[in-house]
Amino acid sequence: MTGTTGPTRRAGLKSMVAALAAVPLLGTAGASAPQQESRVRATLAPASDAPLEVMTFNLRYPGARDPNTWPVRRPVMRALLRRAAPHVIGTQEGLAAQLRDIEADLGPHYDWIAKGRSVEDPEAVAVFYDTRRLAPVEHAHFWLSDTPEVRGSNTWGGNYPRMVTWVRFRDLRARREFCILNTHLDNGSQNARVRSADLIAERLARFDRSLPLLVTGDFNAIAHASPVYDTLLASGLVDTWDTARARGGVYGTYHGYRALIPGGDRIDWILATPGVTVHREWTDAFTVNGQYPSDHLPVQASVTLG
What we know:
Layout: E1 2-5, H1 10-14, H2 17-22, E2 35-36, E3 52-58, H3 70-84, E4 88-92, H4 96-106, E5 110-113, E6 127-130, E7 134-143, E8 163-171, E9 176-184, H5 190-204, E10 213-218, H6 227-234, E11 238-239, H7 240-243, E12 247-248, E13 268-272, E14 277-283, E15 299-304
Parallel strand pairs: 3-4, 9-10, 12-14
Antiparallel strand pairs: 1-2, 1-7, 3-15, 4-6, 5-6, 7-8, 8-9, 10-13, 11-13, 14-15
């Protein structure tokens, strides 16, 4: 697996804003040329008990019809994210201008890493992070297809090209490293979802499993009731919802701006290696005057890296 090493900084990103209008390549600038991913073992001091706040959130792309356009939803999104204050967010469906809005709303201590899923389609699975807590060490992208290194490739009958963005972070407070892998599986094709899960499991086997691992995403598959879920858990992961010591906001994670369903289907998950301790996990049903920030609820977990 190829990776890109070195920190990615907001200053570099803002210098690229004009270029982003012409080239649908998202994310922060300042990355070096790709190089072979190393199986480096963490040499940092043992982790402290400082909880890490992790979120997965399908943002809903900004082309929604009234009354749920992005200008209407953005203030609610801003309020939710500032209140939740996650250290790392695996997002789905973000477009370039929307991601820059979220960056601005989160404040000067957040940055993000992403790449558009194809030249024609800049939608991304961006990873946001709090620079006061986390520093990226390495990151890369691959596509969920028979040709995973080919940007925009789609060979399994999916409605859209689908991809993965992963990052290896150094936790500056807990003083250790971990990896996060973020994705969004196809909404239309069961075959594409199953094949995607197989590829993700294969790629996860290449990661240094001495490092804690988190997987975030909108999987378009129901937890406990799909081969996608079974494949990813068989790869050595656990569902943090199940391992959490406490849970809250027990709703289906996709609501489509309709009434929430208590105990409904979870299609947005946070998975982890078994050594990660999950203190609490919840789906956040935050609204302002009945307006949701997205057609999905974000899922957040407070964890300690094992």
